[in-house]
Amino acid sequence: MAEKKEEGPEGIICSVCRSEFDLDEEGGTTGLFGILPVAFCPWCLASLIDMVQQGCPTCQDESESIH
Q1: Distance of CA 17 to the CA centre of its chain
Q2: Which of 16, 17, 20, 66 is least enclosed, having the fewest CB within 10 Å?
Q3: Is residue 3 part of a domain?
Q4: Mind giving me the DSSP string for 1-67?
């Protein structure tokens, strides 16, 4: 099954904030969430990673040992 990215005239559209971004110039990511194609701009991707780390006891243990 081919991955379908939603694109606007200027670039890819973020699945969260709906802003357009350039994957090559700005970063971010595209992929599949289960069977749903998704794209995350760099800001939403960073927020998503932060949210997962906050809810992950193992990640919190590792970050506490670093400080």
Answers
A1: 11
A2: 66
A3: no
A4: ------B-SSSEEPTTT--EE-HHHH--EEEEETTEEEEE-HHHHHHHHHHHHHT-HHHHHHHHHH-
Written as six digits, the tokens of 65 are 């040992």
59 has a pLDDT exceeding 90: no
Q: What is the pTM of this model?
A: 0.73
Residue-number span of the structural domain to which 55 is assigned: 12-66
18 domain-assigned: yes
How many domains is the chain built from? 1
Whether 6 is in a domain gets the answer no
In a domain, 45, yes or no: yes
